[in-house]
């Protein structure tokens, strides 16, 4: 997938560029299919109804342009429409609207026009009824565009109310500018006085900058931390565009530069692999292609003569809708993804809560089971001690025979309470290690010497290999306790006549102490639970242990940043291996 990523970027870049070019070329081609009326031509009735573009204006003087044609059959009053400010000097009576002039024509009467304009006029002739229909159609399209921008603004405002995000604020600002821009054009279709001109220039500048700004904000390329610098840049660009928009040609150039800047920014976002950038890019590409058709009439090139239908669409200001819709899709996509992530997090949280609840239930159950076992083990020796004391109260002479049993029971109670106390402290992380350099082999030898009597009493052969020096970092007393728990556990589970072997060695930069016995072994299904608290194997030959020795040993080894490994086979015995990091002699 990563190998195809550059190819995908190139494909999207080419497609977005082709979208803009194809829309512009198709628009130019379709515009060229509309009927033209040359200077001195004859206007047919069908052309008058559909609307025809006047071409070939002759310059009659400085700022004066003349045109003549012959009206065809019919008694309809003709209307002359202009797309730039011009003043009709002859040819008919002027109406209140500066871009619509009524031309009385009947039969084959010739019509001569003289217009005052700063450049070659762009004019169309149609019937008066059709001209009013065109005006109504233009106003309806403008209202629809305003309604679309307004609905999107309400939606974004609702999102911004519940989720204060700066990106939504920039998008809301852009939509507000577009609503005011389109509303101003709808209310004042023709250019008015100086105040209107200034307002028009200001909104034009805001429209260009807000489109760039919202694209940068939605893609995350707008650095919010540099607000002062960005505000100064915004005001500078606004003033520059405000100045440039005073001249038609410069305004056209600014519009073209703004389109390229916005599309270039989105192409950069696409190559930066910003999610959803393609939605903004293709919306901008469609708007760019439509805006090219808006720019061409302002250039007044002879190769492009704007037709009446294109003039109506251009005045409707719908060319910004695709980009606004792309921004809307981008915002909806982002919120949908956030909602999906929230649902995933909720499901993950529910799953973890269920797992934690189950673990707590199992832990509570295990503790209850452990407490029952502890109470059972406490009750048995206490019952034996109570019976022995009762016997002694009746027959004091039985003391020599009862004393060893009573001592053994009391010793078991002492071991059990000490192990429970130590296990509780380990669980609460209350064990502090008195760490220093420790020769693990020497501590192992001391433990084996101390356990020799217990092994002989059980009839078990205890051998040790502790000649190899193993220098580790740890608590000597706790390490002795680890080895002692493993050795005594091996002795307890090894029947009489068996053997327990303790070996110290170094391997891979680690110190290893292995305790191998020839006892009953541990079934595979129980090996994962041997280090759990109060675990007793299901083997037939059990002994009275506290069930906490291996748990304590594992926790102490973990505090020393080591591990205990187990190898066992039923009927052949088990081997517990302690692994600790080995120190160099000079460390």
From TrEMBL:
Single GO cellular component term: plasma membrane
Protein name according to UniProt: histidine kinase
Catalytic activity: ATP + protein L-histidine = ADP + protein N-phospho-L-histidine
Matches recorded under Gene3D superfamilies: 1.10.287.130, Histidine kinase-like ATPase, C-terminal domain (3.30.565.10)
Subcellular location: Membrane
Primary site of residence: membrane
EC number: 2.7.13.3
Keyword annotations from UniProtKB, A to Z: Kinase, Membrane, Phosphoprotein, Transferase, Transmembrane, Transmembrane helix, Two-component regulatory system
Sequence intervals crossing the membrane: 141-161, 168-186, 198-218, 230-247, 253-271, 278-299, 311-332
Domain Histidine kinase: 373-584
Pfam families assigned to the protein according to its UniProt record, in alphabetical order: HATPase_c
First-level EC class: transferase
GO MF annotations in UniProt: histidine phosphotransfer kinase activity; phosphorelay sensor kinase activity
Source organism (scientific name): Candidatus Faecalibacterium intestinavium
């Amino acid at each position: 997938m990563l190998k195809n990523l550059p190819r995908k970027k190139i494909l999207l870049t080419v497609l977005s560029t082709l979208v803009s070019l194809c829309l512009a070329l198709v628009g130019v081609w379709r515009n060229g299919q509309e009927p033209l009326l040359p200077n001195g031509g004859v206007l047919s009735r069908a052309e008058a109804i559909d609307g025809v573009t006047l071409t070939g204006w002759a310059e009659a003087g400085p700022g004066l342009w003349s045109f003549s044609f012959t009206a065809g059959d019919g008694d309809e009053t003709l209307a002359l429409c202009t797309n730039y400010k011009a003043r009709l000097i002859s040819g008919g009576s002027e109406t209140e609207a500066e871009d619509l002039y009524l031309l009385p024509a009947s039969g084959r009467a010739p019509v001569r026009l003289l217009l005052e304009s700063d450049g070659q006029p762009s004019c169309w002739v149609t019937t008066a009824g059709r001209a009013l229909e065109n005006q109504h159609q233009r106003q309806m399209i403008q209202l629809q565009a305003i309604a679309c921008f307004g609905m999107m603004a309400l939606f974004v405002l609702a999102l911004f109310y519940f989720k204060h995000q700066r990106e939504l604020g920039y998008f809301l600002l852009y939509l507000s500018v577009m609503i005011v821009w389109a509303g101003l054009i709808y209310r004042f279709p023709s250019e008015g006085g100086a105040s209107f001109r200034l307002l028009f220039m200001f909104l034009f500048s805001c429209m260009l900058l807000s489109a760039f700004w919202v694209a940068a904000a939605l893609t995350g390329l707008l650095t919010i931390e540099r607000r002062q610098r960005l505000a100064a840049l915004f005001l500078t660009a606004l003033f520059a565009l405000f100045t440039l928009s005073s001249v038609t040609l410069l305004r056209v150039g600014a519009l073209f530069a703004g389109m390229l800047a916005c599309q270039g920014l989105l192409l950069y976002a696409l190559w930066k692999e910003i999610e959803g950038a393609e939605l903004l890019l293709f919306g901008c590409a469609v708007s760019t292609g439509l805006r090219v058709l808006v720019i061409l009439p302002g250039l007044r090139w002879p190769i492009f003569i704007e037709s009446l239908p294109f003039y109506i669409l251009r005045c409707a200001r719908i060319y910004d809708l695709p980009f606004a819709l792309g921004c809307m899709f981008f915002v909806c996509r982002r919120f949908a993804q956030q909602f999906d992530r929230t649902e995933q997090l909720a499901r993950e949280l529910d799953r973890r809560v269920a797992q934690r609840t189950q673990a707590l239930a199992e832990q509570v159950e295990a503790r209850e089971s452990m407490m029952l076992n502890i109470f059972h083990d406490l009750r048995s020796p206490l019952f034996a001690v109570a019976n022995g004391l009762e016997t002694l109260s009746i027959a004091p002479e039985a003391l020599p025979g009862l004393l060893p049993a009573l001592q053994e029971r009391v010793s078991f109670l002492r071991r059990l309470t000490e192990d429970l106390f130590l296990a509780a402290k380990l669980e609460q992380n209350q064990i502090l290690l008195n760490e220093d350099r420790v020769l693990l082999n020497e501590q192992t030898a001391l433990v084996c010497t101390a356990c020799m009597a217990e092994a002989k009493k059980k009839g078990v052969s205890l051998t040790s290999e502790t000649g190899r020096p193993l220098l580790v970092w740890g608590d000597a007393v706790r390490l002795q306790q680890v080895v002692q728990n493993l050795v005594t556990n091996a002795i307890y589970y090894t029947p009489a006549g068996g053997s327990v072997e303790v070996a110290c060695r170094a391997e891979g930069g680690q110190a290893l102490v292995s305790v191998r016995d020839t006892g009953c072994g541990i079934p595979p299904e129980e090996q994962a639970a041997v280090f759990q608290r109060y675990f007793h194997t299901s083997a037939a030959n059990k002994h009275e242990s506290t069930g906490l020795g291996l748990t304590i040993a594992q926790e102490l080894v973990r505090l020393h940043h080591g591990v205990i490994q187990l190898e066992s086979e039923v009927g052949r015995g088990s081997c517990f291996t302690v692994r600790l990091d080995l120190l160099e002699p000079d460390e």
